[in-house]
Amino acid sequence: MIVKLFSSEKEAIKEVPSGTIRKLVVKNQGYLLVHSNNEFYVVDELCPHQRASLAKGMINSFNEIICPLHEYRFNLKTGAEASNKCGNLTLYQIAVKSDGLYIEI
Ligand code: FES
Fold first, then answer.
1. pLDDT score for 40
2. In the sheet that 91-97 helps form, which strands lie side by side, from edge to edge?
3. 67 lines ligand 1 (CB under 6 A)
4. Which residues of the chain have a pLDDT value below 70?
5. What is the whole-number distance in angstroms between the Cα of residue 35 and the centre of ligand 1?
6. Distance from the alpha carbon of residue 86 to the mean position of ligand 1, in angstroms
7. Residue of 50, 56, 58 to mutate, ligand 1, most atoms within 8 A of C-beta
8. Nearest CA to ligand 1 atom 1
9. Which domains are present in the chain?
10. The whole model's pTM is what?
11. What is the pLDDT of residue 63?
């Protein structure tokens, strides 16, 4: 399913500034829109370790989201946990087009 989130990249940047995380709910499923290092990423809301919500996680300068429960770190480009302590975080496709920002979930 393709979902349009914003009508332009400029609007997306204004609504979700770099270094922040926005929770999305689509068909009762939680996702996160993460803005890190001038890129947008869409990931599952729940940590693959013990399913804590990553919505209150932190983003570090290595382009990783850090789980608030046990501080496992997940690469936003690959989904891999930094020390291979658990499975990968699921990533979703995102597209910035001339008429808006879209995600495929
Ligand atoms: S639940 Fe996320 S690191 Fe344990």
1. 95
2. 2-6, 100-104, 91-97, 39-44, 29-36, 20-26
3. yes
4. none
5. 21
6. 9
7. 50
8. 50
9. 2-104 (2.102.10.10)
10. 0.94
11. 96
